[in-house]
Design brief:
- By secondary structure, the protein is an alpha+beta fold.
- The protein has 2 domains: 88 residues, Beta-Lactamase (2-Layer Sandwich), CATH 3.30.450.20; 202 residues, Heat Shock Protein 90 (2-Layer Sandwich).
- 39% of the residues lie in helices and 24% in strands.
- It contains 7 helices and 13 strands.
- Strand 10 and strand 11 form a beta hairpin.
- The longest helix has 38 residues.
Length: 305
């Protein structure tokens, strides 16, 4: 063993190396070795070789073994020198632990942390924009507090839904139910939602949550939900178009106060347009029909799960 040739290996070593080594091979059972950063690691510089050359155990090292078929396995070696009763180095024994699953878990964690960092930055930018634009269009502090709190609540409900789905696909019906939650006992029973099962990507879910919050708030203050007999119908459908599949969502207010177009476009209208057209690449149509507000939203397939 002092020459660096190994004399024994077990079945697990064969599985890790992807080959059956020959007794007498030097230093390592693997085909090729790499450092953890991917740079080549010569066999005579591997942890086992160091343990033999320097007569000391090597701990805390990581390496990557390349099999003959090209696949690579990250592992952690534990080479330990063997000595006789007089302390003379007579060989070494090595244990190699496959750390592939740990590395995959670390990579998943890194991706999740990066994604969380990205989402937090986007959310803070959205909150900053909401505060600035709401303040710009509010007549006084009380109006700002009401409008800003409502928009933050809509954003929070969407985040709750996405968190429960681990920021994966979010059902559209659940999004609507979440948006209606603050109105429980007030007007929620006068809102009907009809459509097939559709799941939205996280960006589309957040954008639609903001739009639904604006529409519901407006309906409660000025529209169909501001009187006892008014109602709202929300319907959606999927269809094929020249540009591919798309989701069409309709908002209809019924039996409410007479509707007249506003003299100027407020922040709420601009926010809805930004969410649907800029953020999602869709199309928003708002009609101030005498019988009630009508809104059509078209969302491209890219934003659907």
């Amino acid at each position: 063993m002092s020459t660096g040739a190994f004399t024994f290996f077990n079945k697990t070593a064969v599985e890790l190396a992807g080959r059956v080594p020959e007794i007498g091979d030097q230093w390592c059972v693997s085909w090729r070795l790499y450092n953890a950063d991917g740079t080549p690691l010569p066999h005579d510089q591997c942890p086992m070789a160091i343990a033999i050359k320097e007569g000391r155990p090597v701990r805390g090292a990581e390496a990557v073994a390349e099999r003959p078929d090209g696949t690579r396995v990250p592992f952690q070696p534990y080479p330990t020198p063997l000595r006789d009763s007089e302390g003379k180095l007579i060989g070494a024994i090595n244990m190699m632990i496959d750390i592939s699953e740990r590395k995959r878990a670390e990579e998943r964690q890194k991706v999740l942390i990066d994604e969380l960092n990205h989402r937090v930055k986007n959310t803070l930018a959205t909150v900053q924009s909401l505060s600035q634009q709401t303040a710009r269009h509010a007549r006084d502090l009380d109006e700002f507090n009401r409008s800003f709190s409502s928009r933050l609540l809509g954003l929070a409900h969407a985040h709750d839904l996405l968190t429960r789905s681990h920021w994966g696909p979010a059902p559209l019906r659940s999004l609507i139910t979440n948006a209606m939650a603050p109105m429980a006992g007030l007007a929620a029973e006068r809102i009907t939602a009809e459509g097939p099962f559709v799941e939205l990507g996280p960006q589309a879910a957040l954008a639609l949550a903001m739009v639904l919050n604006e529409l519901l708030t407006n309906a409660m203050k000025y529209g169909a939900l501001s009187c006892d007999d008014g109602a709202v119908r929300v319907a959606w459908r999927e269809s094929e178009h020249a540009n591919g599949r798309q989701l069409t969502m309709e908002w209809r207010e019924l039996s409410g106060p007479a509707v007249t177009p506003p003299e100027r476009s407020g922040f709420g209208s601009k926010l809805m347009q930004r969410c649907i057209e800029r953020d999602l690449g869709g199309r928003l149509e708002v009609r101030y029909a005498p019988a009630g507000l009508e809104v059509d939203m078209i969302i491209p397939a890219a934003e659907l799960a």
